[in-house]
Specification:
single chain; about 1250 residues; alpha+beta; Jelly Rolls; Beta-Lactamase; 7TMR_DISM_rcpt_extracell_dom1
Length: about 1250
C-alpha cells in the first residue's frame, strides 16, 4: 500500500504541473482589445495563445461596424474574455442566449521582421470567418446572420499567414444556431510556421498512439473473454476501451473527419456525446463485476435511471441535448465518487487488487475533473482524459499480471497441502484399530448411564406432585454424586423474585432445614448474588470452598442457614427460560463436586426441569379449574339476572309512556335490590339543570321531604356539588354515609332535608351523553352496597336509559308535530291573508283587509299606523281602525299626532330605533314618557303592542295595537304572529309609496320629455325606444338673433347674461306654443322654431309670421318694462323661410329633436343677411302669406353656397285684418285663418 500511495502522489503532482505549467511563463495577454507582442520572439519564446480581452460586438458584422464608423457613429461593444462563450453575457442589461452572431476584434502589435507565421484554431461555435487587416483569410462552415443561410463546422484549421509587422487587426465573425452555446471557446494559437506545424503533427501522433494503444488493449480483453466466457469483466472493459477510442477521434483535432470527411456535423456531435454517456454506464458496470460486494444492484438501478434522460436527449436537436452537458458533468463526478467509495470499501475488506485498482482509477478521476474544469473555461490547458485512461489501462494490465501470479502461487500451495494430507491419512489408517477399541468401552459406560437416567426419568414422570418429584430426584442424585442436601427455589417472573419451595436432606443432615428456609426469597436482581448470576447466564455454578467475605448479604444469609459446604447451583430451564434452581450440597469433609458430577447433575436437571414444569402446569390447571367453576356459578347467576333484566327491558320497550316506564323501573329496583326510595331527574338543556321528573318516597316520609324531592333542581355547574361531578364522570356514585364536610350547599340540603344516611346516584347515559340521573336510597337503615351490586344497578340503568331517551324523543316528537301543524295552519292563514292584500291595489282597501284580519284572529279592535316621513324625520299618521268608542277630539289627537325621531317619542321611538316590537300586557299607572301617558289616557288601552313595520331592513312605518279588554292577553306565539302580519303591512305600505313615487317620477319624466320633444314624437320614443326620421315637404322655420350680441356679452357677467336670455326666451316659448309651432333649439342668441311639424298643417307659414310680429313687439315691450336689468338688446332680427326638411331625434341619454336640410342653411343665411331690427322672409314664405301681410323691400343676399337669394321684409298684418297696431288679428283674419286651416286657399283682391 505504501507503493500505491507513492504512485498516487506522483500522479497528482504531474497533474498539477500539467495544469499550471503554462502559467509559470510570463506570456502577454490581451487587455482592452490590444495584445502587445512587440517583444515576443517566436523563434525563441515559442507559440502564443491570443487570449484575454477582445472587443465584442453583438449582432454586428465587420462591414456593419465599418459603415457605422463612416457615418460617424460609434458602435456599441464590450470586452469579452477569450476563450469563452457568449451565453449568459450581460450586453447592456440584456442577458445573451446561446444563439446569434457576433464579431470579436483584437489589435496585435507584432515585432518588426517577424518570421513566417501560422495560426491554429480548434473548432469555434460554430461557423466563423477570419479577417486580418480587413482581408478574409478563412471561413469555416457558412457564417450567417440568419439561420436559413448558416451551416456549422467543427473542424480545426492550420493556416499560414502573410508576413505581418507592426499593428495588425484580427477580426472573427462568429455565428451559432446549432450548439447550445456559441462563441470563441477555443484559443487562437499563433506561432512560427515550422514550430506550429510540428506541434500540430505531434498532437496527431499522440492521438494516434493513444487510440492505437487503447484499441489493442480492447482486442486483448476481447480475446480473454472469448477464451473464458464467464469473465464478463473483460468484455465490459473491452467495450469501454472501444468507446474511448471513438470519443478520442471526435474531440480535439477531430481526427475522425480525416477518416470520414463527409460525416455530418450533427452526427459528429451526437457521436461525441453518445460515447461518453454509454462509456460512463459501461465503466460503472465493469466495477460492479469486479467488486460485486461494494457496488450493488441498487446502485446500478439508480445509475440506469439517471443516465436514461441523457441517452434519450440524443434524439432531440443538438441545441437541446448539448445544453444538458453541465448536468451530465455533475452526474459523471458523482459516478466517479461512488466508484472511489466502492474501491475503498473493497480495500478495507482485503479484496485482492483493490489497492492497485484505486491507483488506476485515480488517473481516470483526476483527468475527468481536470477536463470538466477545462471545458468550462476554469483552466486553460488541454484535454488529458485519454492519458488518464491510458494510465488506468496500464494498471489494469498490472492487476491482471498480479492475478495470474497469485493463481500460479495458489496452485503450488495446493499441491504441497495435498502431499501433506496424504501422509497424515496413512498415519491415521494405522492407529484406527486402537481408537475403535477405546471408543467401544466408552460407549458401553455411556449406555449404562443413559439406561439409569431413563429409569430416573420414568420415575419422575409417574409423579405430578412437586414434593414427590424433589424427593425422587434427591434419591437419584444421592447415589450418583453423593450429595447430602438439595434445595428447590422457584422463579416468580411476575413478582421478579426467587423464593424457597422445599428442601430434602439425608438422615445424617440437619432435619430442621425446612423450618429454617421457610419464607426465604430473593429479588431477581444483582442483590441475589450467585443465584442471579446463574439465572442470568442460565449456566450451572460449582464451588469447592465458601469465601464468606466475597459473598453479598443475601448469599451470606443462605450460607449461614445451610453451612459452609461445597456445592453447586443448577438452573432448571424449560423452553429456554429458567423456571427454578437446585442448590445441592455435600457435608463430607475435604470433598467437592467434580466436573463429571456437575455434568451428570446438569444432564439430570433437564428431566427434573420437565417434571417441575409439568407439576407447575398441573397446579395452575387445578387453580384455573377452581376459578372457572366459581366463574361458571357467577355466570349462571348473572345469566338468570340477565334473563330477568331482559324480560323487564322487553316490558319497558313495549311502553311509550315515560311515566309508565319509570314506574316499572321503580318497581323492579324495589324488588331486586330492596331499595325504599327512587328518584329520577332529567336534563333541561335550555336551563342547563336537572329537574325532578318522578319519585317514589315511602309513606312515612314527611310532606316537606316529598315537596323537596319533587322541586329541587341541580345546576350543571360547580354549585351542583357531587351530583354535578357524577354528571361529568358519567359513572355511578355510592355515598355510604353523610360527609363530614359538604362540597356545596345543595349537597347539604339533600342530606339534611331528606334525612339520608346513604344514597346511590347513577347517570343515565345514551351514546356517551347524560340524559338524566337516577337516585336510590333507604331511610330505615344504611345501604350495604358492594361493587357487584353497584355494577348491577349501573347496568340496569344503562338498559333503561335508552328506553327513557326513546320515550322522551317520542314526547318531543309529538310536541313538535303539534307545533308543526299549528305553524302550518298559521302559514296557510298568513298565505291566504297575503294573497288577499296582494290582490288589492288601493292602500285603503289593503289596510281595511289587514285591520279586519287582526280583529278577527287576535280580537284587537284598535290599531293606528304611522308612516315614516324621511324629509321631516318624523312618524306621521297614515290610517287607523277601531276607536269607535272614542270621541272626535281623541280620534283627531291620534290623527294629528307626530313622533319625531328622538328620545321624547317614547316607546314608539325605542321600537323604531331597535327595530323590535314591544308588548306591554298591563299598562302601569306611571309611564316614563309623557307621550305614552297621553296615548294610553286618550285611548283607554289596558295593554298595547308596538311593532315596527320593516321592509328590506328599513323601518317604513310603525303599528300600534291597543287592547281595551283586561281579560285579553297575547301569548308569545300570538305576538310573533302579529309581528308577522306587520311585515305584510310594511310591504303593502312600502309598495304603495313606491308605486306613488314611480307614478310621480313617470309624470315628471313625461313632462320633461314633452319639453324636449313634440308629443307624438315623445310617444313614439316611449313605445318603440327610437324615432324614425321623417321628411317633411313643406315646413316653415323661424330663427331669431340679437344684433350686436357679441359686444353685449363682453360687458356682462355670466349670471347677468343667463338671467337676460332666460327672460326673453321664456316669452318666446309662450308665443311659439300659442301659435302651434315646435321649439327646436337655442344656441347662443339664436332661437329656432318650426311650423308644420311634426304634424303637417296648412297654416305653418302664417303661424310663423304671426309669431315673428308678436316676438318683435314683445322684445320692445320687455326693453321698456325691464330697464333695470343689465341685458339690454338693441332689438331683434328674425328670419323666416319655408321649404322641405328632414326631422328626427338624435342622442341616447340626452334627446334632441332637430331638422336638417337646405332649408335650414338658407334660413341661417337669411338671419345672417338681415339688416338691423327687422323680420326677413324668403320668397317661398312670401308667396304663402302675401295675401294677409304687408311685405316690402325686396333685396338679394348670398347663401353659404354662393347663390343669389331674394328676401323680403315683413312689416305687419294688412290693415283690414288687424287692429290698429297691425299685430293682433281681428275677426275677419280669424275667419280666413280658419278656412286656410281647413285647406282652403285665401283669395283677397
Amino acid at each position: 500500500m505504501k507503493k500505491c500511495s507513492i504512485l498516487l502522489s506522483l500522479f497528482c503532482l504531474l497533474l498539477t504541473f500539467n495544469s499550471c505549467g503554462e502559467v509559470s511563463r510570463n506570456k502577454p495577454i490581451a487587455k482592452n482589445g490590444v495584445i502587445d507582442l512587440s517583444n515576443w520572439d517566436f523563434l525563441r519564446d515559442g507559440n502564443i495563445n491570443l487570449d484575454g480581452e477582445w472587443e465584442f460586438y453583438w449582432k454586428e458584422t465587420l462591414s456593419g461596424i465599418q459603415i457605422e464608423k463612416e457615418l460617424g457613429k460609434e458602435p456599441k461593444f464590450i470586452y469579452q474574455v477569450v476563450p469563452s462563450n457568449w451565453k449568459g453575457v450581460d450586453w447592456f442589461g440584456e442577458t445573451l442566449g446561446g444563439f446569434g452572431y457576433a464579431t470579436y476584434k483584437l489589435k496585435v502589435k507584432f515585432p518588426e521582421n517577424s518570421p513566417t507565421l501560422a495560426f491554429h484554431n480548434l473548432d469555434l461555435s460554430s461557423a466563423y470567418r477570419l479577417y486580418i487587416n480587413g482581408k478574409l483569410v478563412i471561413e469555416q462552415g457558412s457564417f450567417g446572420i440568419n439561420p436559413n443561410y448558416y451551416e456549422p463546422s467543427y473542424k480545426s484549421v492550420l493556416v499560414d499567414l502573410e508576413p505581418v509587422s507592426g499593428e495588425t487587426e484580427i477580426v472573427y465573425e462568429i455565428s451559432n444556431y446549432h450548439y447550445s452555446k456559441g462563441g470563441f471557446w477555443e484559443s487562437m494559437e499563433l506561432g512560427e510556421r515550422r514550430k506550429l506545424y510540428d506541434k500540430v503533427n505531434r498532437s496527431y501522433q499522440i492521438t494516434s498512439f493513444l487510440a492505437g494503444s487503447i484499441f489493442l488493449w480492447a482486442l486483448y480483453h476481447l480475446g480473454l473473454f472469448f477464451m473464458r466466457r464467464q469473465d464478463k469483466a473483460s468484455l465490459f472493459i473491452a467495450l469501454f476501451s472501444l468507446l474511448i477510442v471513438m470519443r478520442l477521434l471526435t474531440i480535439g483535432e477531430r481526427n475522425i473527419l480525416d477518416i470520414i470527411p463527409f460525416l455530418p456535423m450533427d452526427a459528429l456531435i451526437r457521436i461525441e456525446f453518445a460515447t461518453i454517456y454509454i462509456a460512463t454506464i459501461v465503466f460503472a458496470y465493469f466495477y460492479r463485476l469486479v467488486f460485486p460486494n461494494t457496488v450493488g444492484k441498487n446502485t446500478m438501478y439508480v445509475l440506469y435511471i439517471l443516465i436514461t434522460p441523457f441517452l434519450g436527449s440524443l434524439f432531440l436537436p443538438v441545441s437541446i441535448f448539448t445544453a444538458q452537458i453541465h448536468y451530465f458533468q455533475i452526474f459523471l463526478i458523482l459516478v466517479c465518487v461512488r466508484i472511489t467509495i466502492a474501491i475503498i470499501m473493497a480495500y478495507r475488506s482485503d479484496t485482492v487488487g483493490a489497492g492497485l485498482s484505486l491507483i488506476g482509477f485515480s488517473f481516470v478521476f483526476g483527468t475527468v475533473v481536470h477536463d470538466i474544469l477545462y471545458q468550462n473555461n476554469v483552466i486553460n490547458t488541454m484535454n488529458i482524459t485519454p492519458f488518464g485512461f491510458l494510465g488506468f489501462i496500464l494498471f489494469q494490465g498490472y492487476i491482471l499480471s498480479y492475478g495470474f501470479t497469485r493463481a500460479y502461487l495458489s496452485i503450488e500451495k495446493l499441491k504441497e497441502s495435498l502431499e501433506i494430507s496424504n501422509k497424515e491419512l496413512n498415519i491415521l489408517k494405522d492407529g484406527l484399530e486402537d481408537i475403535v477399541v477405546e471408543r467401544t468401552k466408552e460407549l458401553e459406560i455411556s449406555k449404562s448411564n443413559i439406561e439409569r437416567l431413563n429409569e430416573f426419568a420414568k420415575t419422575l414422570n409417574t409423579s405430578l406432585e412437586l414434593d414427590s418429584i424433589l424427593i425422587k430426584a434427591f434419591d437419584y442424585l444421592k447415589e450418583e454424586v453423593f450429595c447430602d442436601s438439595m434445595i428447590l427455589l422457584l422463579v416468580d417472573e411476575e413478582k421478579n423474585k426467587l423464593h424457597y419451595h422445599k428442601s430434602v436432606v439425608s438422615q445424617n443432615s440437619n432435619l430442621d432445614l425446612e423450618n429454617k428456609f421457610r419464607g426465604l426469597s430473593f429479588p431477581l436482581d444483582v442483590s441475589a448474588g450467585l443465584f442471579y448470576h446463574v439465572y442470568k447466564r442460565n449456566r450451572p455454578f460449582r464451588f469447592a470452598k465458601v469465601w464468606e467475605s466475597r459473598l453479598n448479604e443475601s448469599n451470606q444469609k443462605f450460607i449461614q442457614l445451610i453451612g459452609k459446604h461445597p456445592g453447586m447451583i443448577i438452573p432448571l430451564s424449560s423452553q429456554g427460560k429458567v423456571i427454578a434452581m437446585l442448590a445441592i450440597f455435600s457435608e463430607q469433609k475435604g470433598s467437592s463436586f467434580s466436573k463429571a458430577q456437575l455434568q451428570l447433575v446438569e444432564n439430570t436437571a433437564e428431566n427434573i426441569a420437565t417434571a417441575v414444569t409439568n407439576s407447575i402446569l398441573v397446579e395452575e390447571m387445578n387453580r384455573e379449574k377452581f376459578i372457572a367453576d366459581n366463574a361458571r356459578l357467577q355466570m349462571e347467576n348473572a345469566k338468570n339476572e340477565v334473563v330477568k333484566l331482559n324480560e323487564f327491558t322487553k316490558k319497558i320497550n313495549s311502553e311509550s309512556s315515560l311515566s309508565q316506564i319509570i314506574d316499572e323501573m321503580f318497581d323492579y329496583i324495589l324488588k331486586s335490590f330492596e331499595i325504599e326510595a327512587t328518584l329520577i331527574q332529567l336534563i333541561d338543556p335550555k336551563k342547563k339543570e336537572l329537574y325532578t321528573y318522578k319519585t317514589t318516597i315511602p309513606t312515612y316520609a314527611t310532606k316537606e321531604q316529598l315537596l323537596f324531592a319533587k322541586s329541587f333542581r341541580v345546576p350543571l355547574n360547580e354549585r351542583g356539588g357531587i351530583i354535578y361531578k357524577t354528571y361529568l364522570r358519567k359513572k355511578a356514585l355510592f355515598v355510604p354515609r353523610p360527609p363530614k364536610r359538604y362540597e356545596s350547599e345543595l349537597d347539604e340540603q339533600i342530606f339534611t332535608k331528606l334525612s339520608l344516611s346513604s344514597f346511590i346516584a347513577v347517570p343515565l347515559v345514551v351514546q356517551n351523553e347524560v340524559i338524566g340521573i337516577a337516585y336510590f336510597t333507604s331511610y330505615q337503615k344504611p345501604m350495604d352496597v358492594d361493587r357487584e351490586v353497584l355494577r348491577r344497578i349501573s347496568g340496569f340503568c344503562d338498559q333503561i336509559a335508552g328506553a327513557i331517551q326513546n320515550s322522551l324523543l317520542l314526547q318531543l316528537t309529538e310536541e313538535e308535530r303539534k307545533k308543526s301543524e299549528k305553524a302550518k295552519a298559521e302559514i296557510q292563514k298568513m298565505n291566504e291573508f297575503a294573497k288577499t292584500i296582494n290582490s288589492q291595489n288601493n292602500l285603503e282597501n289593503i289596510l281595511a283587509e289587514i285591520f279586519g284580519f287582526i280583529r278577527k284572529n287576535y280580537k284587537i279592535e284598535n290599531c293606528v299606523l304611522y308612516f315614516l316621513d324621511k324629509e321631516f324625520k318624523e312618524l306621521r299618521y297614515l290610517n287607523h281602525s277601531g276607536f269607535d268608542l272614542l270621541n272626535d277630539e281623541n280620534v283627531n289627537f291620534f290623527k294629528s299626532l307626530r313622533f319625531p325621531l328622538k328620545e321624547d317619542s317614547g316607546f314608539v321611538y325605542k321600537c323604531y330605533q331597535r327595530k323590535k316590537h314591544f308588548y306591554m300586557k298591563h299598562v302601569p299607572k306611571s309611564l316614563p314618557f309623557a307621550i305614552d301617558k297621553q296615548i294610553t289616557e286618550k285611548s283607554g288601552m289596558k295593554g298595547f303592542l308596538i311593532s315596527p313595520l320593516v321592509n328590506n331592513d328599513e323601518v317604513v312605518a310603525m303599528a300600534m295595537y291597543g287592547i281595551n279588554d283586561e281579560t285579553i292577553h297575547l301569548s308569545s306565539d300570538e305576538v310573533n304572529s302579529i309581528v308577522g302580519v306587520s311585515e305584510h303591512i310594511a310591504s303593502a305600505i312600502n309598495n304603495h309609496f313606491l308605486l306613488k313615487k314611480i307614478e310621480e317620477e313617470k309624470q315628471r319624466s313625461d313632462s320633461l320629455l314633452l319639453n324636449i320633444l313634440p308629443k307624438n314624437v315623445a310617444e313614439e320614443l316611449q313605445k318603440k325606444g327610437r324615432v324614425n326620421p321623417v321628411e317633411f315637404e313643406n315646413v316653415t322655420l323661424l330663427m331669431t338673433s340679437f344684433p350686436g350680441f357679441s359686444q353685449i356679452t363682453g360687458q356682462l357677467t355670466p349670471e347677468e347674461l343667463i338671467a337676460g336670455l332666460d327672460l326673453y326666451f321664456t316669452r318666446f316659448d309662450e308665443i311659439i306654443k300659442t301659435k302651434g309651432m315646435e321649439k327646436l333649439r337655442m344656441t347662443g342668441d339664436m332661437y329656432l322654431a318650426a311650423g308644420g311639424l311634426p304634424v303637417g298643417n296648412f297654416t305653418h307659414a302664417v303661424d310663423a309670421c304671426l309669431a315673428a310680429l308678436q316676438i318683435k313687439n314683445e322684445v320692445n315691450r320687455l326693453m321698456e318694462d325691464f330697464k333695470d336689468i343689465p341685458f339690454r338688446p338693441n332689438g331683434i332680427t328674425i328670419a323666416i323661410h319655408s321649404g322641405p326638411v328632414v326631422a328626427g331625434v338624435i342622442g341616447k341619454s340626452k334627446f334632441n329633436y332637430d331638422v336638417w336640410g337646405k332649408t335650414v342653411t338658407q334660413t341661417q343665411a337669411i338671419r345672417r343677411g338681415g339688416v338691423g331690427v327687422s323680420i326677413n322672409i324668403s320668397q317661398e314664405t312670401m308667396e304663402k302669406v302675401k295675401r294677409l301681410f304687408h311685405i316690402d323691400n325686396q333685396r338679394m343676399i348670398n347663401t353659404y353656397e354662393g347663390e343669389q337669394f331674394p328676401i323680403y321684409e315683413l312689416l305687419s298684418l294688412k290693415t283690414d285684418l288687424a287692429d290698429h297696431s297691425g299685430i293682433l288679428p281681428n275677426e275677419k283674419f280669424e275667419r280666413l285663418y280658419t278656412q286656410q286651416k281647413r285647406g282652403a286657399k285665401i283669395l283677397i283682391k
